[in-house]
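User: I've been going back and forth on whether these two constructs are worth ordering. Before I decide, could you fold them both?

Assistant: Sure. I'll take them in the order you sent them. The first construct and its structure tokens:
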Amino acid sequence: MDTFEWAAAILAVTICFGPGLAAVTTAWLFPWLRGSIARPRLWGWGELMLGLFFAMQLMDQTVVSTPTAATCSSTEDWHSASPACI
């Protein structure tokens, strides 16, 4: 992973985690969001999850891993193959 990808992931985390953490801990929102969000703490938790998964996606991580063709194409023992391959 090069410097640009790390910088993009850190920027995404900062943009999402800053307001999300403020909303969860103090129920504070940006002035332009105050009229449209009824539950700031719930919005904050959603923003934290968005930042987490966005950063994971930028760092080429997956939340749910799927088997690749290399793991499914082996002919050694089909009884121990994962259900996703069958």
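The second construct, handled the same way:
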Amino acid sequence: MTDVDVSKPQDGAIGRRAYFLFTLAVVALGWVIAAANTGISYLALGLDAIPIFAGFLGCCVFTIVLRFLHCAWWLAFLSLLPALLVLVGSVQYPIEAALDSRGVRESVLVTADENHRYTLVGRLGELKETLEYEEGERKYQVGDRVEVIHDPEGVVPLEEASDVDPGGRLFGLILGVVGWTGITLLAGRRGFVRRRAGRRPLLDDVS
């Protein structure tokens, strides 16, 4: 068997400098996707479906591009873990930051519990919004008091104060971007070696 000389490019292979620039471009793509979806979420406050769809699409694009960079699939699949952090952080951070900055914090009384919704009464009377909860996550009884934050403009839905943590959402978003960056740099290094050696992804060989 003839050894492959990785010091010389094979036919059709690209140079080290070009591959390094390709790697940096993919890193920048990850940053752009995270920043752009955060901006979309801010501009579309109250319309969660828009940034969720845009973020999901962006994460899929990043995964596909990473597969071409790595010339294999396993790092692309691994990138789905930080992608989840990017998606959740970019969607939730603007929402919770808006509530934290302009929202009204108030201690309210639970007066009714119907269809997984708490009816709330504050110092000025019954709130127009209700506090929703998932089935099996009932935390309060009628007569309990709960601290909530509601948007005076009525754009961002009311949330329980303890659930509003913009700092934590931002940290998760940054952690996801850092994860993408590390995986991309590793994919660039390994992808360059794989292409020099003429190796192809297993799934491509099967097809």
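Notes on the second construct follow. The helical segments are 16-43, 49-70, 74-78, 80-102, 166-197, 202-206. Residues 1-13, 202-207 have pLDDT under 50 and may be disordered.
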